[in-house]
Design a protein that fits this description.
Blueprint lengths: L4 H8 L13 H16 L6 H8 L4 H7 L2 H8 L6 H10 L4 H13 L2 H14 L3 H20 L7 H21 L10 H17 L4
Helix pairs in contact: 2-3, 2-5, 2-8, 4-5, 6-7, 7-11, 8-9, 8-10, 9-10, 10-11
């Protein structure tokens, strides 16, 4: 039997991909899909078509919003929190900046969405040189240079970079690799263990 009427129209009409009716969440949906696929499949294997399919949109919208796959990558790996929300802990806790900074970072990471985002960033970074370069640029611009502006020392850039090694290393071992007991330690245990080292990088002797 040949379908007629509304049934025939339904079978004949292909599913349209593109901007959805109502509030436009296409850009955000593409970023969510890109982070997941970059993390799971790696940058090289996560194609624009696959990302668009996961987001339920036409692949052309990737280029409309981001210009290229690399542009999508760079947008997807931006830090999930404003760095100033981290570094004001330094300004507000003179003499105990190290512990305050580690505590603030762990507090921010306690939010599941932030922790998941950080985990995806680090997993993506090991998947391909372009991903590593993109994350390196993000960390340099948004973490190291922003922290450097809060320090008065002549070697502020080096100090900020050393602090970044502690924060990124903590995220990697606690959330991505899961090295015990770092992955199971309480926040305060990590604050007390790492705070003095971070303090030395911020204000102590480096020689």
């Amino acid at each position: 039997m040949t379908p007629t009427g509304a049934a025939a129209d339904t079978l004949a009409a292909p599913r349209r991909l593109g901007r959805r009716p109502g509030p436009d969440t296409t850009r955000a949906d593409l970023l969510v899909a890109a982070r997941r696929l970059f993390s799971e499949a790696g940058y090289e294997r996560a194609s624009v078509r696959a990302i668009a399919r996961a987001a339920g949109v036409d692949p052309a919208l990737v280029y409309r919003f981001f210009g290229s796959k690399e542009g999508l990558l760079r947008a997807a790996i931006q830090l999930p929190v404003d760095p100033d929300a981290i570094f004001d802990a330094i300004d507000k806790n003179p003499g105990d900046e190290g512990r305050a900074l580690v505590r603030r970072v762990l507090q921010l990471w306690s939010a599941p969405a932030v922790r998941e985002h950080i985990t995806v960033l680090l997993r993506t970074a090991v998947s391909h040189e372009e991903a590593r370069a993109a994350l390196r640029d993000v960390l340099t611009d948004q973490l190291v240079r922003r922290l450097e502006s809060h320090l008065a020392a002549a070697d502020a850039h080096l100090r900020a970079a050393l602090v970044a090694t502690q924060l990124v290393g903590l995220a990697m071992t606690r959330y991505v690799i899961g090295i015990d007991p770092v992955s199971t330690a309480t926040d305060e245990q990590l604050v007390e263990a790492m705070g003095p080292s971070v303090q030395r990088y911020l204000t102590g002797e480096l020689a």
